[in-house]
Structures are given as C-alpha cells and as structure tokens.
Write a structure and sequence with these properties.
The structure holds 2 protein chains of 2 kinds. Chain A is mainly alpha-helical. The longest helix of chain A has 29 residues. In chain A, strands 5-4-6-2-7-8-3-9 form an 8-stranded mixed sheet, with helices on both faces. The radius of gyration of chain A is 33 Å and the shape is globular. In chain A, helix 14 packs parallel to helix 16 and helix 26 packs across helix 36. Chain B has 8 helices and no strands. Classes of the chains: A mainly alpha, B mainly alpha. The interface between A and B is medium-sized, with 27 and 17 residues. Chain B: This is Phosphatidylinositol-glycan biosynthesis class F protein. Chain B: Pfam families: PIG-F. Chain B: InterPro entries: GPI_biosynthesis_protein_Pig-F.
Chain lengths: 991, 219
Amino acid sequence: MRLGSGAFAAICVAVEVLGVAIFLRGFFPASVRSSSRAGLQAEPPAPEPLAGASSNWSKLPLPLFSKAVIVLIDALRDDFVFGSKGARYMPFTTYLVGKGPSHSFVAEAKPPTVTMPRIKALMTGSLPGFVDVIRNLNSPALLEDNVIRQAKAAGKRMIFYGDETWVKLFPKHFVEYDGTTSFFVSDYTEVDNNVTRHLEKVLQRGDWDMLILHYLGLDHIGHVSGPESPLIGRKLREMDGVLMKIHTALLTKERETLSPNLLVLCGDHGMSETGSHGAASAEEVRTPLVLVSSAFERKPDDIRHPTQVQQTDLAATLAVGLGLPIPKDSIGSLLFPVVERRPMREQLRFLHLNAIQLSRLLQENVPSYEKDPGFEQFMMAERLHGNWVKLHLEEDRSGALLNLGTKVARQYLGALRTLSLALSVHVAQYDIYSMAVGVIIVLETLILLLLSTPQVLHRRAELEMPLSSPLFSLLFYLMFLILSAIHVVVCTSAESSCYLCSLPWLVAGGVMVLVSALLCVIVSTLARMVMDSTSLWKVQQSAAHPCSGWSEVGLLLLLGTVGHVLSLGASSFVEEEHQTWYFLVNTLCLALSQETCRSYFLGDDSELQRCFHTQPGTVGANCMQQACTACEASKPGQASKGLPSGARGGHTRWAVLAGPWLVLACCRLLRSLNHTGVQGAHRPDLGHWLTSSSHKMELSYLAALSLLVIFMLAQRGCSPMSKVALALGLLGVFCYRAAIGNLLFPWQPANKGISKGILEARFVYVFVLGILFTGTKDLLKSQVIATDFKVKTVGLWELYTGLVLLAALLLRPHNHPVLAFSLLIQTIMTKFIWKPLRHDVAEITVMHYWFGQAFFYFQGNSNNIATIDISAGFVGLDTYMEIPATLLTVFGTYVGPVLWAVHLAHFLSAEASSDSAMGCACFCYALICSVPVATYIILVTSLRYHLFIWSVFSPKLLYEGMHLLITAALCVLFTATDQTGHARPWTKMDA
Amino acid sequence: MKDTDIKTLLYAHFLCIFSVILSVLIPSFFVEDFSILDTHLTWLCFCSLFVTSINLVLYLVPKPNSSSKRSSLSHKVTRFLKCCVYFLVSCFSFHVIFVLYGAPLFELVLETFLFAVILSTFTTVPCLCLLGPNLKAWLRVFSKNGVTSIWENSLQITTISSFVGAWFGAFPIPLDWERPWQVWPISCTVGATFGYVAGLVISPLWIYWNRKQLTYKNN
C-alpha cells in the first residue's frame, strides 16, 4: 500500500496515542476497593471476639458524640494553625490546641493535593487515584462507601454550607445545603460570607446531627496573592471567630443534652510557597487536624503535641465517633486518643471493628494476605482480645486485667498501623500487563517511524508500506495465536486485576491483532530494507553528496533533541524542564547567529545566489540577492555606506545579522515574565508584579500594547474581512478582561462592578469562529478547485489568526506579551533566518517544535498539575460545561506548541519548494514528538518505584500523553491540508 | 609541517596547563583559606591573570606568527590598546550572552562578569595573541577549512572546547543535589576550565594523529 508520508505519520501517531492510553490505564492504579458494593446491603457489624463462645455484643457501639461540626478550610496549611501565624491570627484556636479540650494532629494529605480527591479521602478514608485530578472540575456523585452515606443510612440529619463540590459528591444527602462555587478565584469575601451567614440560625436550632462547613476564601487568597499576603492574616482571624462561635454554641447545647459534641477543624490540602497546590511538597501536604470536644478535657499539665497522622484516618475516627460502620474502602486507622477515655472494653471493641474492616480490605485486594505481617498481628490481637473479654465477663476486675487490656490495645494499634501501610502501598501497585502492552505498541510505532525516516528525508512523497503481504503471512497468524495464548494465560492466572483482562474479548483481540500486525509490518520493512540496502545506499550517496554531512545547526538540533530526551530520566530535569528548553533555544539562536555571520562575512554568497536562482519568485529572496551583491561590492563594516542599491541591502543584511540576537532578547524578556518550575517558582517575576492589584494600570497598557502588536503582525496575511474581524475580536478581548476586572480602561480608572463578561467573551468567540470558518473555506476551495497555492496559504494564515485570537482571549492579560513575542519571533525567524539561510524542511520543523516547547513554558506552565490555568475553561461560559471547558483549557495550556505547529504549516505552504515538504514536515513533527513520549514511558516504567514517581514523574506523564494527543490532531490537520498533492494519484490508482 | 612544530605546540600547551594548576596552588600561600569553591572569585582572578601572562610570554618568545613585521613603537602601542579594547568588548559581550542565557540581571553581577572574564581569557586572549586584533582572520579560523597552521588548528580546538565546557557546565545547575559547586557560576567556570585544559591536551594529540591528512595552504 502506498501512503503519503504525512498520512503515514498521522496514522502512526494515532496508534501511538492508543498505546499511551493503554499504558496510562495500567500505570495509574485503580484504588483499593472493597468488592461488595457499598449500600447494597448493610452487613451486620462483626461481633466482639470471645474465646470459646460468641459474644452477645454484636451491635455497633453507641455514638461517642451527639453532634459533630466539621469546619473544612480550603488550603489550610499546618503552620497557619500550629505555627507563628496561628499564634498571631488565631488566638482562640491556639488556646484550644495548647490548653483546651482538644486533640491536634498534622494530617498528611497524599498527592494530588487538589480539593475533590482530598474531600473523597477525608470522607471515604481511601486514596483516590491520580486520574481523579482530571475529574476534579466535574465531580460526579461519590459511589464508594463513605461517612456521609453511612450517616444518612443511620438517619442522621446533615447540613452543608460551602464548596458545592460536596453537593455534587453527595447529592440528596443533606437536609439543607447552600453550595458556593469556586468560580471566581478573585473573590474571597463573598464565598465565605455565604457560608457564615447561615451559621447563627443553624447553631441555635437543634434539629441536626452533623454540620459541614467548607470555607474557600483562604484557598482563593493563596491562588491570587500567595501565603505571605496580608489578606491571609485577616482571613485566619475571621476563621478563628467562626470557630469560637461554633465552639461556644456547642458548649451551650451540651449543657442541655449532657452528651459531648465534636468540633473538627481540618484542611483539605496545604498551600505551596507560591500559593498554589496539587503537588507533593511539604507545604502542600501537611494540613492541621484539630478535634475539639468536652470529652477531651485535660489537666493543665497535660501537654499534647500535634502528632503526625494520615488524612485518611479521619473517616474511621468520625465513623466511630458517630456510631457508624467504618466505610468499607477506608485504609485509615482510628485516631486512638479520641477513644482512650472510654472504658477498656469499648476501646478494644472500636479497635477490633477497625482492624476487621482493614483486614477484610486486605483479603479482598492482596492475594497472599495471610503472610502479611499486619494480618498476623491482627490475628494475634484478636485472640488476645477474645481471652480478655472472657476474663472480663468472668467479673475479674483486677488491675491485671487493665494491664492486659492495654497490651491488647497496643497490639491492635500496631496491627492497624501495619495494615494501613500495607494497603496504602498496595494502592501504588501497577497493572504491569497493560503497561507492557502499551509500551510494545508505542515502541513498535516508533520503530516503524524510525525505519521509514531515511525514505522520508530523501524526499519521497509517498512511502511504500508493506501492509497486505504481512497481513496474510504465517508470521502474523502465529504471532496472533501466541499473543492470544499469553493473554489467556495472564488473565486466568492474574493475581491482581488487569485492565486489559476486564475488557471484552473482542476488544482485547483487536489489540492483539494490532500488536502482531505492527510487528509483521516492521519485520517486512526491515527485510525489504536489507534487500534493497544496495540501492538505498546509492540513493544516500547521491543525496549525501551535495550537502556534505551535517551542518552545525542540524547537528545541534539532533543532539539537543537527544539530550532533552535523556534528561527526562532525572527528576530535577523534569521539574526544571523549562530550563532545558530555554537553554536549547538560546543555543540554537547562537548557532543561527554564527551561521548568519559566516554566510555574510565570508564568501558563502555563491551558494546563496545559487539558491536564489532556483527560486527567484519571493520578495525576500530578491532582497537577499541584493544583499549578496552588496556584500560582494563593499567591504564588511562599510556596507551601509555603499551604493544606493547596496544601502537597502545593507539594512536587510544588518537585520539578518541582528535577527538571532533579537530573538534571544525576546526570549530573555519572556523568561523573566513567568518563573516556573520548582526552584524558581517562588522568586518574584514580572508576571506577579503585573498581576498585583496596585499595578493594574501598567498591566492594562501592556496588554493593550501587546494586542496592538498582535494585530499588526497577524493581519498581514489575512483577507480584508478577516482583518476587520481580527481587530474587533482583539478589541473584544480587551473589553472582556476589563469587564471581569483584570484590566482597566484608561478613561475609567475607577474599578466598577465585576461581571462574568459572558457577553464580551461570546462576542470574541463569534469572530474566532468567523475567521476559522473563512480559513477553512479557503482551504477547501484550494483543494476542490485547484487554484494557485496562494489561496491555501491565505487559508492557513487565517486559520492561524483565528487560533491567535482565541489564544488572546484565553490567556491571562499578563501573558498577552507572550503571544505578541511569539508572533514577533515567528516573523523575525521567517523573514531573516529561514528564508535567507534556506534551511532544510526537517530543520525548520525541529526549530518550530523547540520554540513551541519553549513557549509552553514561557506562558507559565510547568510539569506540575498545579500550574494549569483552569480559568481558561470558563471564559464565556456561565455554567460549567464539561466538553467546551476541557477543550478550552487544553488549548489554553498548549497555546505555544499549537500555534508554532500551525505556523509551520503556513510557512511551508508559502515557502516550500516541493510538494512533499508538508508531508515531510508532518512526519518529522510526529517523529520528534513521539520519541520523547516513547522514551519517557520506558523511563517511567523502570523508575516506577522511585520516590518522586507520584509527585514529579506522573504529572509529566499526563502532560506527555496530552501532548501526544495534540500532536496527533496537528498531524491530521497537516495531512488534511496536504491532500491536494496526492488526491489525484490515488484516484488514478483506484481506476 | 614537522614534528618539531608539534613538539613546540605540546610544550606551549603544557605551560598553559601548568599555569592553570599554579593558579590553584600559588594563591594558597598568601591568601588565607583559599579554595576554589569558597574564594571562587579570587581564584577566577588569579587563573585569568596566570593564563593571560603565560599566553603573553608565549606570544613574545617563540613568535609562531611569522607574518608579524617589524613596526614602529606607536604601531605596537595602538595594536596593544586595540587588543585591550577587544578583550574588554569580548568580556562584555560574553556577559550579555550569559544574561541572555538566563543569568540574573541585577544580582551576582560581579560573578557573572568574572565568568565572562575567565571565558575571554580562555578564548579571546589566545586569539588576540595569535591572530591579533583582526576580525577577518578570526572568522577565517573559525570557519570550515580556514585553518592555515597547526597553531590555528589548536587554537580552534581549545576555544571550541572551552565554550563546550562552559556550556556543559550549566547542566548541573537545575539538579537538586544542593552541592556548593552548583551555585552560579562555579559549575560553568569550572566546566570552562576543564574544557580549556582538555582542549590543550587534545589538540596536540589530535594534530599528531591526523598529521598525514592535515595540509595547510601556507605551509
């Protein structure tokens, strides 16, 4: 079968996406789950163990607390309560922690430190998987067993005020609720007032058993101005007041009912030094957990220091405290200080219930659970417990019994700790089989791409893909049979669950067919390569002759790409990947500058002239030709004083010489705009300076200037209609940002009311769609009616302009310069470097890829989930809509790579000499994007027990997967625009 | 080209390497607590000074560039001044390049500048000694097939290896090992020094190995 190189690349990347998807499914483990679905039938609680007989105490113990209030403060870091900030701003809480009737803990949250997974962890006691981050915005109802569900089943009346994620997670669970959205991060007073306003009334009423408050304000302050902001102190003081109010109200209630109440203060995650969260740094992971109740009354000399516990421990503790069954999937262990004042028999009963639940979970998830030390400890403890109960029932009330009880409790606690640890380790188990299949698919595609590289680089427009012969070969069927056999063996003997085995047989069979077909294609391609190696060698000889080996830039591009791929193995280089790209792009600019110097100061003119003679059409080439003649006519350094014709040429020449330096200067400016990564993120940068509220005017001027530059640069290639649309669209962007309060109009310096800016944003969307539509129409026209290539070029440029406008809308105003500089650099490079120096298509493609990557980081992105700007997904939408929000967020994040790739398509269609250039570029782009992904997948597989696997490597893996998906989309776009050249040969072949 | 030329080149390079080693050893006699890491800037100054002086001595003694004609004193003085200006210009332009590469603009200015000085010492000073303040000759030497003697060939190799050393020296900076030598610009200066020394060692050997293939236009 013959395939265009572009189409071939697109197919390969699509298959690779499939492989990566299978790998990701295997890599991100499913959470530990109890096999019996929650809520279907209420299992009777385990009876108390009794040696030789069965105990009559088979019901759940009575609740310890009659009412519980949970105050969850988003992004409450441990030092906000226990540290100096706490002492300063939260005096009441500090008193409670230090001297009051309370137990305080530092609860460690597991990454991803994002709100929804953390709420799930707090309420189910299980560890939600990493993929839950993706579903953070769209939280569907929680299906797993959890405290709220158990409380509802037990007939408790619950009230909730705060983040509406809860309402979505637990629909119809609350008798009364008021959800606030965290839609506007810049609002940090209203969200909390909406919660507090109900407090007075609710605390007076007594018709509830559980009250949950989720305050978002602190998190918003963190996102906007970081943990050192003065607003933090004010917010903490406000929260302190709320706690005091609740505590006093609970105490009054207690006097009426005479049973203790519980007040829980906790945070869902911490706050990094930049004020964001999502990763696994100590600031993000450590949250305070304070339990306050009159049952915890202590003597003045009883000093309790906050001990370190897991966030998942709260679910079990709450369940015990409220007399509920412990959630089935909980991997937490009871916080023992809560029950230590209870009678010994009750204490042991609680511990036993918790241990039974954990050991059941272990039995269901770990095949060899009997050998687990935790399980052995538990069996021992249970036996001792039975003996203890027997003695206790025999009315033996001596001190020895108490000692024995303490010993049993200690044994139980040890067992709980070990079991909990074993389960949380088990969460990190990988589905090796799916991972292996994914890796094999990705590697096979990569090898196929690499094998066809020589053909593509020698400008073959079409690739000969041996597809039909291997498909009917014996090898294919053998491979398929072997793989199916392996699949059956693996799935029947699997100890842990496999994703591939859970698929229907037909789908799994399809995957096997794909794997074996790819293998056969590779084998036959290899065989053919070996057979025509002699002829290929000749081709190489003839092709290699004129260019005489690698140029410096080509070598740098190759080595840089390889070096970047290798650097992905080190966690620091993944964290600081932006440094790698900045470094590479700078070096590239220096190499280019050296090349320009050489070609203009030394006598390389003849070569250039030859190039221009072959294609004298373009304006740039004419200019350069003049430059060359000027070069010959006058000595270097005096060019500007030469002949009149040489004067113009001299200007261009100096522009060419200055081009790389201008690009370097632009890159340096952009670099100081957004500091990203781990080491540099906390350093002050221009972006922070601009976004602070006191510099709004400067930001407005800068954004206006950038939008103007964007217009000037983007309108050049457009049709008049699109020019007008672009101008109005950019105006709309400014109006939108002014409407939502990011920018100010110069004539309206006072800040007026903030709206959502729906109207303005939709106004811009109309123009975006209009420009995109015009561009697509031109492209289609150029394909259906074979007009000259100008129409296609204009169409591509309009497509590009539409995307630029969309990017201008989605990027935050302080990032508008990034967009402007991106256009500026593209213009400089096109005019002064790529056109005059006549680079290879492959080189130009790789340069576009590098710049695209650098701009990904210039924009403030990093390999950390926390830096994704989710607000892009809400532009112009008044409610959360999943698909548009996801698409917008993805585009807003990958603006750099997408824009540079589309620019590449336009550049090639405008400048390329041969028809196959676009196909070749598409192929190179696919190759250069899939090499890092393939290597990274293998690296991650080998580093899967690395300490930083969850905090550093996994987010990067998600980014890489997303990048590959975008590459696939771009390759399809390339191929679609490239169809003109190949449509006719195909029809001929069919006929 | 004779083997004696290569021998002279080898001795000259040994002297240069020796000067680098001396710059590590000698200052410890009269500077207290001298070490490359702690008193890095002092070392940079010494190293630059030593290497420059050895280069000057080499320039004055064996006279490898036979083309230098006898000329008047004023000509010599202007030539010397021109060399100084070139050196300063190269220092400043290196500084600018480092800032473009991401070195802090306002902090650590002295450190960045001294790094520029030491890199100029390794690259510009030999060029000035060998080729004089003649940009055209420099461009010729650093382009393909533009070398006309083993001295220029070795100059090419040492200069490029110094640059490459400095370039590689930037690699460990983002790593989180928290070592004292990861501080800007220590790893880069040390990298440049290693690159320079490696270039000094490699170039005579390389020329020796390839002496059959090397044919120079003027020799």
